[in-house]
Write a structure and sequence with these properties.
Beta Polymerase, domain 2; two-stranded antiparallel sheet; 187 residues; 6-stranded mixed sheet; disordered C terminus
């Protein structure tokens, strides 16, 4: 990660944690935080969907001057009413893209393969330190599953790096993964 990426991620996590937002960082950035060599431009946040948590999320993001992320408009577009509100998040079945002072952010309620979003991901999430902030990030296994389901070109490109990092982590933990496991054969 570049120092700018590090600084922006640290700022984002600091603000989310200060507002007591319950969330998991997912997507390629979560893979990067676990040592995978992935390239991405945004941070995917999967928040708990409770009304109170979504309000805390909006309050946190509003402190980062959010704007709608639109292709070909680098500074984004002004949010209607000037402030992000839970209704903006709940009305989106896919990623809600934002441009903020802490970088590009996607809010994702239902990542591919995890229809219950935060509730599904939090079980296997890993806690890491990001510049003094404790942050839950999606597990490598969950990232692989989601990217396999998405099947986009960029996701297919990331799978090799994620699987290589998964194998390294398994060796570090002294865990052997049977190749048949990937096929659901349980060999």
């Amino acid at each position: 990660m570049s120092s700018t990426d590090d600084e922006q991620l640290a700022r984002l996590c600091e603000v989310l944690n200060a507002h007591h937002v319950v969330y998991v960082i997912f997507g390629s950035f979560a893979g990067r935080l676990q040592g995978a060599d992935l390239h991405t431009v945004d941070v995917d946040i999967v928040p708990d969907r409770s009304e109170y948590n979504l309000q805390r999320l909006c309050d946190a993001l509003n402190s980062l001057s959010p704007r709608w992320r639109i292709d070909d408009v680098s500074e984004g577009l002004r949010i209607d009413g000037g402030r992000l509100e839970p209704r903006h998040i709940l009305g989106s079945s896919i990623a809600l893209g934002l441009v903020t002072s802490a970088g590009l952010i996607d809010i994702v309620l239902e990542p591919a393969g995890f229809e219950r979003g935060y509730d599904d991901l939090s079980w296997h999430a890993v806690t890491v330190d990001v510049a003094g902030n404790r942050v839950k990030i999606g597990s490598i296994d969950d990232l692989i599953r989601s990217k396999e389901i998405l099947g986009r070109e960029k996701d297919r490109e990331h799978l090799a790096d994620l699987r290589a990092r998964q194998a390294e982590l398994d060796l570090e933990r002294g865990r052997h993964r049977d190749p048949g496991d990937d096929l659901g054969l349980g060999l």
